[in-house]
Design brief:
Layout lengths: L11 H50 L10 E2 L5 H4 L14 H5 L32 E5 L30 E2 L4 E6 L7 E6 L4 E5 L38
């Protein structure tokens, strides 16, 4: 039926056609946008791990903590930003504050640390949150299954002056991991060590890191059952 000149609105059929077209475009475009965002997050995580490796080389080569030993820092990675060298109150700041703030092991408020070796709290200098959808933490075991370092208690903030933290350093090795906040934020876990080569491991459909009340991972990492492959996620991969 022809519409009169005084009634130029859309008919119900025309509106339905427009809505259907919009729905089709959204169905095509949204998955592509989400995939693009995940890819961007993963590139960002890889770049941040390279930054951490460069920071470790600087830390060891230039004796940044001032202990007169060439060694790598192998506990909570946030200290590559917040650590005070011996005789100084100025943090070394070898990494971006956003990477330090995405450390999943150092708390933002006082309390005992399960695997980290310091009391310099993230909350002193930034808000603890994922960086571009990814969290970061140090690995605990090298490719041979040997511990990089062992420190189970919270010790003095000026780390280098405290002899109790001797196992917070390793003279030849280190390892870091970046893992996605959710499966929608990324589909891969990335790891790097002193060889400066990035490796990746896929996460499966059940991927869901355990988190505390604040949304920060509960001082843990994705369990092996959530990964593609059986080896523990906190161990640097063996040749096999």
């Amino acid at each position: 039926m022809r519409r009169s000149k005084g009634n130029q609105g859309f008919t119900l059929i025309e509106l339905m056609i427009v809505i259907a077209i919009i729905a089709i475009i959204a169905a095509i475009a949204i998955p592509g946008l989400l995939s693009s965002q995940r890819a961007s997050n993963e590139r960002n995580a890889s770049a941040s791990l390279k930054t951490l490796a460069s920071a470790e080389a600087d830390f060891r080569g230039n004796d940044r903590e001032g202990n007169k030993v060439q060694d790598f820092w192998v506990m909570d990675l946030a200290q590559l930003y917040g650590m005070d060298p011996i005789g100084s109150t100025e943090p070394i700041k070898l990494i971006e504050v956003s990477v330090a703030g995405a450390d999943a092991t150092t708390p933002s408020t006082p309390g005992a640390l399960a695997t980290a070796g310091s009391c310099v709290l993230i909350g002193n200098y930034c808000t603890q949150s994922a960086k571009a959808g990814y969290w970061y933490r140090t690995l605990t075991l090298d490719e041979n299954g040997a511990a990089y370092g062992v420190q189970s208690t919270c010790v003095a903030p000026n780390i280098p002056t405290n002899a109790a933290t001797a196992t917070s350093w390793n003279t030849s090795k280190f390892g870091f991991m970046a893992f996605p906040d959710t499966r929608s934020a990324g589909r891969n876990i990335f790891i790097i060590n002193e060889g400066n080569t990035i490796f990746k491991r896929g996460v499966n459909q059940l991927y869901a890191p355990a988190k505390g009340a604040t949304g920060v991972p509960a001082n843990t990492e994705p369990v092996a059952a959530q990964l593609v492959g059986a080896s523990a996620s906190l161990q640097f991969p063996t040749d096999a």
